[in-house]
Amino acid sequence: MRRIGDEAAATSGTPAKGEDRSRLKRAVPKYGALAILAACAVLVFAQCGAAGGSPSGGSTPAAQGGRGFNPSDVMFLQMMLPHQEQGVKLVRLAKGHAVTPEVRTLAAAIETTEVAEARQMQKRLRDWRRPLRAASGEHAAHGGLPETTDAELEALARIPADRFEREFLNLLIGHQDDAVQMARLETGQGEDSWTRQLARRVDRSRSAQIKQMLKILDPQPPEDSHRK
Q1: How far is CA 40 from the centre of its chain?
Q2: What are the residues whose beta carbons fall under 8 Å from the beta carbon of 170, sequence distance 6 or more?
Q3: Where does the DUF305 domain start and stop, copy by copy (predicted)?
Q4: What is the per-residue burial (b if ≥16 Cβ within 10 Å, else e) of 30-67?
Q5: Terminal CA-to-CA distance of the chain, rounded, Å?
Q6: What is the pLDDT of residue 45?
Q7: What's the pLDDT tens digit per position in 2-24?
Q8: 69: helix, coil or strand?
Q9: CATH code for 4-16+31-217?
Q10: For position 223, what pLDDT does the model report?
Q11: Assuming Cys at both sites, which of 57, 91, 182, 197 could form a disulfide with 107, CB separation 3.0 to 4.6 Å?
């Protein structure tokens, strides 16, 4: 059984006790995400190239690079957009449930940030004349990516009130960790400076959010100032 706290701690560098995600676990192991994306990027480069055509000589692949950007840049934005949409749906669930003020504030901040980022990513892809989404199955053929599914969101929405916040944070930690993995791949393989800068911001912000959520899940007792 995977433990979400241990997974997130491995990403953020923060040790923490994990919480079993028995009801909301992912179908694909999270640390397969980076390997899947790396393999995907290699295949896209090999098949498309920064200036070449499709393998069959037909239409331009959705993830093909261009002047000043490469397939990794395109793939990162095309994968992040649906990820952001899922994230916004997830954090909006906090509005209709009883959560602590800290969690409510965090959820609202994540929604604001990810909506703004999504608009920027859409503009970048349009400037490159690339579709906002890859053609159906284009990335899935290389293994796809772990995601927060509609089924998981529906299950979370039905969770009893006394367990909602903990399950909400567990699912959100996993979701934001996916973003960290994608961002780090883009930082290492992307070409476009704007997209790589965005990836670094995503890495920093999501890692900070994960640390905050781990502290909420596993608060440490205050130190005794009178202790010798």
Answers
A1: 16
A2: 4, 19, 21, 24, 217
A3: 73-217
A4: beebbebbeebbebbbebbbeeeeeeeeeeebbbbbbe
A5: 40
A6: 41
A7: 344 444 444 444 444 444 344 44
A8: strand
A9: 1.20.1260.10
A10: 66
A11: 91
